[in-house]
Write a structure and sequence with these properties.
379 residues; alpha+beta; FAD/NAD(P)-binding domain; D-Amino Acid Oxidase, Chain A, domain 2; 8-stranded mixed β-sheet; 5-stranded antiparallel β-sheet; 10 helices; elongated; binds flavin-adenine dinucleotide
Length: 379
Amino acid sequence: MTEEKVDIAIIGAGVIGLAVAAEISAQQPGLSIIILERNEKFGQETSSRNSEVIHAGIYYPTGSLKARLCVEGKELLYRFCEKWDVPHKRCGKLIVANTPEEEKSLAGLMEQAAANGVEDLELLEADQVKRLEPNIRANKAIFSPSTGIINSHHLMARFEKLALESGVMPAYCHLVKAVEPLSANGSGYRVHFNNPDGTADTIDCCHLINCAGLQSDQVASLAGVDPGKAGYKLHYCKGEYFSLPPSKANLVSRLIYPPPLQSLTGLGIHATITLDGRLRLGPNTVYVDREEYSVDPGHGKEFYRSAKTYLPFIAEDDLEPEMAGIRPKLSGPGEPFRDFIISEETDRGLPGLINLIGMESPGLTSALSIARMVESLIS
Ligand SMILES: Cc1cc2nc3c(=O)[nH]c(=O)nc-3n(C[C@H](O)[C@H](O)[C@H](O)COP(=O)(O)OP(=O)(O)OC[C@H]3O[C@@H](n4cnc5c(N)ncnc54)[C@H](O)[C@@H]3O)c2cc1C
């Protein structure tokens, strides 16, 4: 590392850290920016272990950051993908109901979506669903035409390219170990990290942006915030995926979801199509105590039971364990909804520190609107 001081240090090169780097370097070109990332490449964690769905913004409580940033982020993302040739598809999604309770929850979702500014939903009867998706089972369904899928690797590669072209310095294999305020009134930070060869080093910055995903509560704590007192403590919630065989992949052409879980812990085990024509089921919600990405083959039964209700063509032995991601959740098991935290920490005596905590879904969809919000916090 040759630099000793920069205007901005960003910790974490997931989709959000990269989007933030690209946005600030475009809007405030005079600033020197470094991204410190512990892995050897960008996007090795949550940003490459998700459903790659561009969400419409239907579910989240009105006025929450998740609702606002998702609705705004979706439009920004579609425009960005078109401008920069990022592979994506506005394939649409159906939220299906097969029981009276599920039908009731569809009505609630229609209201929630309208309150969030999602105005393109249609409530479909069984025969209308059949015309769109002849192979699925649904008494009723919500059709969301603006939901889509995206290649998140290409998106991150484009953010990285734009950031590099604007002078952002990437520092891969740089593990941040400690953060020290440079003065009592908190004008700037000294960030301690390990170089790729393991030697210890530091860099000073005026603004420190914590985009450390699953480690963001720990990084906030390094900077002097007590995660317990601040309400920043993360719970890890694994989401496993099972794949279905190629012979079944062309039996649906949209994303098929059941109604979401009550607390929005997850969106229910859904069927996702990928841009390369695969069909997979997931994710479930399993709270875990460490970063560990195995898929329990025994969970296939639960996936099968749940998906069989709306995908009658699947057989139990179709399901193959595929991959897992971990949600950095602010709510623990059984706890109510928590919003994203995007906080400039002057009120805690840490000016210039911006913490992003609990950036679970819809963080991929919202990457550009989150980046805009963070940029507006840099004066
Ligand atoms: C199962 C699952 C499904 C999802 N599906 C969707 C979806 O369909 N649509 C959607 O919009 N969102 C979805 N999400 C959410 C989305 O994936 C996340 O919101 C997004 O990827 C978060 O990006 P990030 O940059 O904050 O985190 P990450 O990608 O985790 O990046 C954080 C980075 O910080 C680095 N880091 C951490 N600590 C340090 C340190 N001390 N020093 C240096 N570097 C450090 C890590 O190495 C990592 O690269 C899903 C998430 C999960 C888990």
